Amino acid sequence: KITDMYLDVHLMISEPSKYINNFIDSNASLIVFHYEAVGDDEINDLISYIKSHNVDVGIAIKPDTAIEVLMPYLAKLDLVLVMSVEPGFGGQRFNPIALDKITKLKELKQNNNYKYLIEVDGGINETTARLCRQAGVDVLVAGSYIFNSEDYTKAIESLK
Question: Do 9 and 27 contact (CB within 8 A), yes or no?
């Protein structure tokens, strides 16, 4: 509540519904939960609940999860997060399987007039950022690449 910045909350947790209200109450702008952490019968309710509180909603998928599982939800989402590494630890190598997912999500977005942003997280550096942008990504998440660099500004500029 001390900032008016857009707060993107990525919940890499089991049973995210237990914690959603904490983040809504903390003025989250966007809440992203993992498809794999929620039962198929809960996803629509969770999306509706988050949106009913004027918070944007996104779903993340792990590298081995096919984008087809998201088809029933794409029209309702503000963001789709493609994990290009297994969630949990920084500094992992980018898995190129993410590029195909980004391309497919971009096509689905264009062909169906969906509004979601496409985000990628994991192993992002100057080279992988360029590949992801070419595939159609909207948002890059880069942690280790920036924080392990000598010059944060230069690292960030290299991603643009």
Answer: no
